[in-house]
Design a protein that fits this description.
Helices cover 34% and strands 23% of the residues. With 613 residues, the chain is an alpha/beta fold. It has three domains: 3-247, Aminohydrolase, N-terminal nucleophile (Ntn) domain (Glutamine Phosphoribosylpyrophosphate, subunit 1, domain 1), CATH 3.60.20; 262-446, Glucose-6-phosphate isomerase like protein, domain 1 (Rossmann fold, 3-Layer(aba) Sandwich), CATH 3.40.50.10490; 456-596, Glucose-6-phosphate isomerase like protein, domain 1 (Rossmann fold, 3-Layer(aba) Sandwich), CATH 3.40.50. The strands form four sheets. It has an eight-stranded antiparallel sheet, with helices on one face. The longest helix has 22 residues, at 432-453. The chain is globular, with a radius of gyration of 25 Å. It binds fructose -6-phosphate. Fructose -6-phosphate (F6R) is lined by residues 304-307, 351-353, 356, 359, 404-405, 489, 493, 610.
């Protein structure tokens, strides 16, 4: 979703703004822009905007030089992607970039129109800049005008503001992420640390309602209540451990491919804490986890998209290993429905980014219903969702840049398996012997995934056959039904082929009508208790001239024929089998998208971090 970079430094900041925007491209965007303050001319603002890629903006601004400026990648919410809607928006010598949605923009717009302000875009953002101009007429300084403006905004925002007359940038956030960067030659702000890697690793995460004035020699920071805050005391300084390699593709053609291949490594990192242990401590979820878990009688998982799918797999694990009910809800639905709160329920928010607006709101909503036993399962340590929850487990997938989630998903699965074992142990459902065996299975998981990656050449050959397809059906049963959903989501996201995931037993209740010779049916067929049932479902497809692509285990006893293609995964992996099968499906989607020539890392219309509703 939108990205912000802002800088005030002792030398030209234009290359940094462009590099920062390039680093934020992965978040998804449709236009880009920047506003620069020209010291030489005594502070005039110049603005550049482009509806193309950041590279086009770089071309426009290549001869510019400035020591302060703000920059933005926009993901359209209000108003089509166009130059007039691209940020920064300007009014009377002030420029603003904004990430989020202003919910009361219609009322503010009417008020400002009545005051004579002229609007030149269709965005909600433009009200912010006119309101700042309006309030600056009576406010003692720009900082106060921005703080007063923020008090009138309803909704979600991270903003950066620059004025021709001041050599500083003012930033604030509420609901959308924004952090400060402290450098040796300047000070900065950005949506995430990757944008600032070339100038600093010293990061300060802003809290809800903070307003900061960034200047060359320091940062003035005021909290939501108006108190002056000390950086390093009230807001800790974090040293980002993000490596440059994490945000670069290396030898891979796409970030998605790199991230698929990183899975053995990031699974090992996520599971590092179990070391050689034969037994798990609930403390891996936080110091108060033993007390909280002891009183839990059920689990509610809240998440969106791919993270929702990991929750669906976890439901099978938790009910089987811990013997307590587990429900999984799409966060955007749960937050608006009337549900029956259960204060003894463990509420688990799963999120790669930790900033997904719906997931964050759903956890707040659960808390408002008296459900205080909350656990964040997240890949971003200082994210809003982590801070909102009583307990946390941090996956160690590293930065995920490809919009389609891969390594974040499998590390979530590893973490959820740890949760299921922990709850099973607390509920005395798992013996010490079983626990030790599950931990051994987890330790072996990175190697098992590595073996699945060796299937890439064979999957590549399959992918060729999908080039002219418009639809695909993914089938799974039991634990692998959510993997069918995830396989279908991956395929539609990056190849734009319409795909549906179904529990195979449901086929004859409707989707079988779609099956013909043009409909590839991808089936996950591990050698588990449901295999014989699944085989009957596959027969139903074969007898309607459907073409089957089956991911089976070595011993699944599925016979190949002209219209039944079989790839065998190297190992059968019991309860953890979904982790292996999904890797094969990620590779399939990736190679189909490659054949189709789509923009794999930045699929159309999608954003990496969905910070608006
Ligand atoms: C799909 C994908 C999305 C995200 C969803 C939730 O490949 O990445 O469906 O899973 O937007 O995002 P997080 O996990 O950051 O809350």
């Amino acid at each position: 979703m939108c990205g912000i970079v802002a800088a005030v430094a002792d030398s030209n900041i234009v290359p940094l703004l462009i590099e920062g925007l390039t680093r934020l491209e992965y978040r998804g965007y449709d236009s880009a822009g920047l506003a620069l303050r020209d010291d030489a001319s005594g502070g005039a603002l110049s603005r550049f905007r482009s509806i193309g890629r950041v590279a086009d903006l770089a071309e426009q601004a290549k001869n510019q030089s400035a020591t302060s400026g703000i920059a933005h990648t926009r993901w359209a919410t209000h108003g089509i992607p166009s130059e007039r809607n691209a940020h920064p928006h300007m009014s009377d010598g002030i420029a603003v970039v904004h990430n989020g949605i202003i919910e009361n923009y219609v009322a503010l717009r009417e008020m400002l129109l009545a005051q004579g302000y002229v609007f030149s875009s269709d965005t909600d953002t433009e009200v912010i800049v006119h309101l700042i101009v309006h309030l600056a007429k009576t406010a003692p300084d720009l900082f106060t005008a921005v703080a007063q403006t923020c008090k009138q905004l309803e909704g979600i925002y991270a903003i950066a503001v620059i004025r021709a007359a001041d050599n500083c940038v003012i930033v604030s956030r509420h609901g959308a992420p924004l952090l400060l960067g402290l450098g040796d030659h300047g000070n900065y702000a950005a949506s995430d640390a990757s944008a600032l890697l070339s100038v600093t690793r010293k990061i300060v995460y802003l809290e809800e309602g903070d307003v900061a004035e960034i200047s060359l020699h320091g940062i003035r920071l005021v909290g939501a209540e108006g108190a002056l805050l000390k950086i390093g005391v009230d807001r800790p300084i974090h040293i980002s451990t993000l490596s440059a390699a994490e945000v670069e593709k290396g030898d891979y053609a796409h970030f998605m491919q790199k991230e698929i291949f990183e899975q053995p490594e990031v699974l090992a990192a996520t599971l590092e804490m179990i070391g050689g242990a034969q037994s798990l401590s609930p403390n891996i979820f936080g110091a108060t986890a033993p007390d909280i878990f002891a009183d839990v009688n059920s689990v509610l998982i809240l998440a969106c998209g791919t993270s929702f799918h990991s929750g669906l797999v976890a439901r099978y694990w938790i009910e089987q290993l811990a013997g307590i009910p587990c429900t999984v809800e799409i966060a955007s639905e749960y937050r608006y429905r009337v549900s029956v709160p259960n204060p003894r329920q463990l509420v688990v928010a799963i999120s790669q980014s930790g900033e997904t607006a719906d997931t964050l709101a759903s956890i707040k909503f659960a808390k408002s219903l008296g459900m205080e036993k909350t656990l964040a399962l997240c890949n971003a340590p200082e994210s809003a969702i982590v801070r909102e929850c009583a307990l946390r487990f941090l996956t160690r997938a590293g930065k995920e840049i490809g919009v389609a989630s891969t390594k974040a998903f499998t590390t979530q699965l590893a973490a959820l398996f740890l949760l299921a074992i922990t709850l099973g142990k607390i509920g005395r459902r798992i013996s010490a012997k079983d626990e030790a065996e599950y931990l051994n299975d987890l330790r072996h998981l990175p190697l098992a995934v590595q073996k699945v990656l060796t299937l890439e050449p064979a999957i590549k050959i399959w992918a060729q056959r999908f080039a002219d397809k418009h639809h695909a059906l993914f089938l799974g049963r039991g634990l692998h039904y959510p993997i069918a959903l995830e396989g279908a989501l991956k395929l539609k996201e990056i190849s734009y082929i319409h795909a549906e995931g179904y529990p195979a037993g449901e086929l004859k209740h409707g989707p079988l009508a779609l099956v013909d010779e043009d409909m590839p049916v991808i089936s996950i067929a591990p050698n588990d208790a449901l295999l014989s049932k699944l085989k009957s479902n596959l027969e139903e497809v074969a007898s309607r001239s459907g073409e089957l692509y089956v991911f089976a285990d070595a011993d699944s006893a599925i016979t190949e024929s002209a219209r039944v293609h079989v790839l065998r995964l190297p190992e059968h992996y019991g309860l953890l089998s979904p982790v292996l099968h999904v890797v094969a499906l990620q590779l399939l989607s990736y190679h189909i998208a490659l054949v189709k020539g789509t923009d794999i890392d930045k699929p159309r219309n999608l954003a990496k971090s969905v910070t608006v509703e």
